[in-house]
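YM 10:42: 5-deoxy-glucuronate isomerase sequence, as discussed on the call
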Amino acid sequence: MSLHLPWGSAAREPWALEVTPERAGWAYAGLRVLDLPVGGEVTFATGEEEMLVLPLAGAATVHCAGLRLELAGRASVFAAVTDFAYLPRDATVTVRGQGRFALPSARASRRLPPRYGTAGDVPVELRGAGSASRQVNNFCSPDAFDCDRLVAVEVLTPDGNWSSYPPHKHEDDRVHDDGRVEARLEEIYYFEVAGGSPGERGGQVGYQRVYGTDRRPIDVLAEVRTGDVVLVPYGYHGPSMAPPGYHLYYLNVLAGPGPTRTMACVDDPRHGWIRGSWAGQPVDPRLPLTGAGGN
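YM 10:58: structure's back
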């Protein structure tokens, strides 16, 4: 399977995008996207996976285990931080609404209750500095929201900036000789570019780099547009590049075999020094691009 999936290349009814662990060639992380018309409705079973319903553009009502969860959503990923719903494994779910909705997922062993996540409770972090400044919406990070294995965050990169930088990897469960902790995680990047629409192959682009080591080679430099996905089974990933004129959004979905949810990673040792340079630089004044109440 290609590691760069343009919008439409991984569609299967009722999903506009479907990446299961089997289709990705790994064991845990998955992502689906629903594109619902006015009055749209889809019913599905979660099976062995815990999932989220995350509005990308639009609003929906989620029915699960006798609960009705109203998602106010947002006009676009560049307009506001959104509320979301958590869906447990072994559940039947109905989503009714209009818009585009991401459903990050992970193979889960525990069955947790369905829950509503408010936009106001999403921790918004400004990370990096200078041209490496970005906004991270930690809506389903390990410290922000309880799941069995699933980890998911949103990143907004102002035009002209780099994020997912310095390049880092999480392909081994180990403590390095210098004390750095690395976790084994599968990762999915789902992209949107400001001004772009899914399937539109116009000028709104971003770029994603993935590369490996001598032990595990991998080589991806993808031109990404709204709705595209890049899979990261292993290797260093970054930078994610927002060209001048085009803000870049991506949804990161991570899951792995470890008993503790984590985002532990290690930098490419050739570029890790970049973090130390941020102390003397201001954060890009355009950030944050969004908040719970909108721009």
